[in-house]
Amino acid sequence: MKKTLTVNLGGTVFHIDEDAYQLLDKYLSNLRIHFNKEEGADEIMSDFELRISEILNERVRLGNEVITLGHVEGVIKRMGKVEELFGEEPFSSAGNRQTHHTADEAGKERVNRRLFRNPDDRILGGICGGLAAYLGWDPTPVRLLIFLLMFFFGIIIPIYFILWLIIPMAHTATEKLQMRGESITVENIGKTVTDGFERVSSNVNDYLSSGKPRTALQRIADGLVDILGVILKAIAVLAGIILFPPLLFVLFILFIVIIALVAGGIGGGFGLLYHLMPYADWNMLNQYPEWTLLVAGICTVLLIGIPVISILYAVCSRIFKFKSLPNGVKWALLTFWFIALALNIFFAVRYGIPFWGDLNHWPWRPSYWRNIVQMLHV
Amino acid sequence: MNAENVKSQMRKGTLEYCILLLLKKEAAYTSDIIQKLQEAKLIVVEGTLYPLLTRLKNSELLSYQWIESTQGPPRKYYKLTEKGEIFLSELEISWQELNDTINHIRNN
Hints:
Chain A is mostly helical. Helices cover 71% and strands 4% of the residues of chain A.
């Protein structure tokens, strides 16, 4: 007994066996992928569909109520397999195809692979599946390796759980392609989506939500994960209630420590500056108008602070998954940075040179460093 | 470099010319074109033809109408356009030249 589907092919309705449907669907989507680059792809595809519909119609007229796998195989043999049709493409010259090919490969190389957890191939979280996709390996050896390594290096177990927390799951078609390092083209996305669709459709009775049927091992793992999740959540809530006041206190202390460190850093920085520029005329600072010192100070902070904070923010947003900064803010920061740079250059030229003192004591002269060494000894 | 490959390249190189020649004689349904080409042992699978016909149509060498056939739904009925005829006459000249070249090389 076989399940049949009803399909509309070129305007005619056919009853078709499920396996036959899948073969035909794969054939047509393969053709579409190949023709997609071409002008008039829709028309070519509808020509194919119409012709296939005609051929199948003959079968129906001969008394076959249902289209079977054999019929579809016959159709494909008559129309030509995809490899036959494109293996020896005469219309574009060999040279063209060569360049096309290399362009394709270059595209593949340019794609950044990204590490995701693989939702389609997972036992515990999909980390090994994702890692395998990232490395282009088969998942089973990766799992075996990790499993064996666990006995020798216990540290792998906590690392595994940390990775589970940090690495995101590949949800969208684009992410799945990035996970496997395939280039993100319309065709590839289409293929991934169709793949997913096929998986759902072929197991529609068993598992609507997940693609593949889960093996027994995977289902045991799923159960464990559920139980673990509940326990962990309960612990987290309890811990939150109990630890909240002390946690706040710790944060407060941490905050004060950071402030102290920053203050110390600034003080130390000035001390260092004083030592590095022993010949600077520090008294001259008094002669400058106060606002110049203030503006120069702010500019210096911006000049150093903006890149440091941006980098820190970018790193944190990667790790903790906040949104990265909106583009407007990025441009504003960049603009501020350039203004600060310009002002600093201005101050350096206008006030810095007299402040520095004798040109002979500038850092590019060995005498400068000799003097510093002497100073430090004294 | 294998013989099959070169042979099929040669066959396919002449395919456009042959389609235009067939349609010069008379307009035809796609299925007729396929049948005649198969009789002439020029193509093996039908799928080769659809993209080619669409390309020829897009370059305005062919045009088609949807015409009801006796059996089933309306089908594309292709005919040669004026531009197609000019194109064909150019191809005929170059085919003649090619023929001469081959004969010349063969006989000397």
